[in-house]
């Protein structure tokens, strides 16, 4: 929609820009109202699951591309008792709409209908649809969950 409106406005105003008559319409910027946005750093891309799911979903959308949104999770093997901490790049998400979060501990991540569900702050939950491990290709949540082979996933 903006491309359509903007291109029509540009075509309408381009002659006045080229002949210099647009200067009479121009307004001087009030520098006292100008703000600077700080440069985004990779440290800002870490997810904290204490935030609400909507906030985290918007963060994933905002940080898409560079630097991406990252989270650390713990993979527990119930057979051996070992656990490893891994770093995930969260690619796509949506807010979990089901009011009831399935049983388990508050830190347990569960899989349902093609997505990993991470419990978040204020009783909300975030569905993660695509994930990327460091140095690997992006995979959907189903492929990632199948790759765990019975191991449990916990948020940190």
Structure description:
This is Methionyl-tRNA formyltransferase. InterPro entries: Formyl_trans_C, Formyl_transferase-like_C_sf, Met-tRNA-FMT_C. GO terms for molecular function: methionyl-tRNA formyltransferase activity. Keywords: Protein biosynthesis, Transferase. It comes from Olea europaea subsp. europaea. The protein is α+β, with helices and mostly antiparallel strands and 156 residues long. The protein has one domain (42-155): Rossmann fold, CATH 3.40.50.12230. It has three helices and seven strands, in the order ααββββββαβ. It has helices at residues 2-19, 53-62, 141-148; strands at 69-76, 83-95, 108-112, 115-119, 125-132, 138-140, 152-155. Strands 1-2-5-4-3-7 form a six-stranded antiparallel beta barrel. It starts with a helix and ends with a strand.
Annotation keywords:
Rossmann fold, alpha+beta, 156 residues
In short:
The chain is of the alpha+beta class and 156 residues long. The protein contains three helices and seven strands, in the order ααββββββαβ. It has a single domain, classed as Rossmann fold (3-Layer(aba) Sandwich), CATH 3.40.50.
